[in-house]
Amino acid sequence: MRRQVAAVPVGLLVLPSGCSLFDARTSTGAQPSPTATETPTTAPAPSPAGYADGGITNATAARNGHLQGVLATGNVSLGYNATIRDPNGTRTVTVLQFVPPGEPRALTDTVVAAGGSRGSGAVRRTRFYANGAQYVREQRAGTTYGSIDGELPPAAFAGRQHVDPALTKVRCDSIERVERDGETLFRLRMSAIGDPGALLSDRLSAEDVTGGNVALTVGPEGVIRSLRYRATVEADGRTGNYGVPFAVAGIDRTPVERPEWARER
């Protein structure tokens, strides 16, 4: 019989400030690609569906372009990284996803850590999804294992819960084309975060945000390669700083293998 364990949102990822999402060997054994160089370009490369020189023109088309682009890859790595600093200390959550979208399996690695006046601690949960089940390893003071019945479709691992708010809840201030490794990318800069609760935390309202911006980079096929939220928040007499980057990397270079511990028990 499978032991039941509590589930957390599959897409959540936070890394400590100053760390790269893919700056070390991943848990699948895949090596990150070398840092690419970028140069501005004025070449009239066509914009992905849903985008134009004025910014985002059709959020639905942009959303579908990202989803279809991710699902068309052989495999991919996704990471979401958020750091919250306030007078009580620093909180981070780290999640990496490794997904072959054409197959019903995925691996996610989540680390939640906190430190400051309210104490410190960390927990790591690693999940492997395959054959209608989620196998879970939790490392806290010790290590426990469990599993949950229920299959998730490949679309659940495309990071839409992170990119959707940026496509629908902010205003684009500028867009530029840049060249990276021979392909044209589209970089959008945005402000006027109309719904910070969707981007940062359900507890926030627009009145709480005193400053912030969003930067988004889109590939020619419509995949959102990177997304970064930054915000300064005044709430309950305290000032907090939010940093939330999301990235897609390792396209067609991220094989997913079943961990030894993810077996029927």
UniProtKB/TrEMBL annotation:
InterPro entries: DUF7537 (IPR055959). It comes from the Archaea. It holds the Pfam family DUF7537. Residues 30-44 have a biased composition (Low complexity). Residues 25-55 are annotated as: Disordered. This is Lipoprotein.
